[in-house]
Amino acid sequence: MSTTPIAQTAAEHLPLVFHGPPGWPTPTLEWVNTHLGWQPPPGWVPVPGCPHSPPRWTFWSRNDAAWRRMARPSLRRARWNLYAGVVLCVLFAGYTVFGIVEGTQPSWRILLHLAALITVGIKTWQARARVRQIEAALVTSIRDTAEQLKAASDRAHYARYLRSTGER
């Protein structure tokens, strides 16, 4: 039987991990769920009396295992294109260098290998840019979902409050 707290186990499945500055209280799992990726404005503190966060503090980092599970379907094709591009760049670079060093290949073939190397290099760079674009869109999606969860949580808490006071 595991002695890991349920909240910690649940947090392990979130794609981002919160890092509070020194002196800040540990947030609840609900807070983390409803604020994933949120960047507090300068000067914001969670409770009065807490120290301000240091300049350029990194509040969130990726939880690698959960991030991979979440991002895999979106990134599979883009990463495959990136890896294939790297392999082809190495092959074309090798063919080009071998053709120049050997000196027996016609110059048109060396130029063809060089053109292929440049083309594949550009496509590889584009694939890497696409991976970064998809990752940025995933972070935006995480933040948007957290905002929706926060709004639903706030409504539920307010409804519970109204019921407890007898108001409607």
Q: What brief labels describe this structure?
A:
single chain, 168 residues, 65% helix, 4% strand, elongated
Topology record:
Layout: H1 6-11, E1 16-18, H2 29-34, E2 60-62, H3 64-102, H4 107-165
Antiparallel strand pairs: 1-2
Helix pairs in contact: 3-4
The number of helical elements comes to: 4
Helix share bin: 55-70%
Order of helices and strands: HEHEHH
**Structural class of the secondary structure composition?**
mainly alpha
Largest sheet: 2 strands, antiparallel
Percentage of residues in DSSP E strands: under 5%
N- to C-terminal distance: 44 Å
Which oligomerization state do the chains in this entry correspond to? single chain
Radius of gyration: 25 Å
Average per-residue pLDDT, rounded, comes to 83
Written account of the structure:
Helix content is 65%, strand content 4%. The chain is built from four helices and two strands. The chain has a domain at 75-146. It is elongated and about 90 Å long. Residues 1-6 have low confidence and may be disordered. The relative contact order is 0.12. The two termini are 44 Å apart. Strands 1-2 form a two-stranded antiparallel ribbon. With 168 residues, the chain is mainly alpha-helical.
Short description:
Helices cover 65% and strands 4% of the residues.
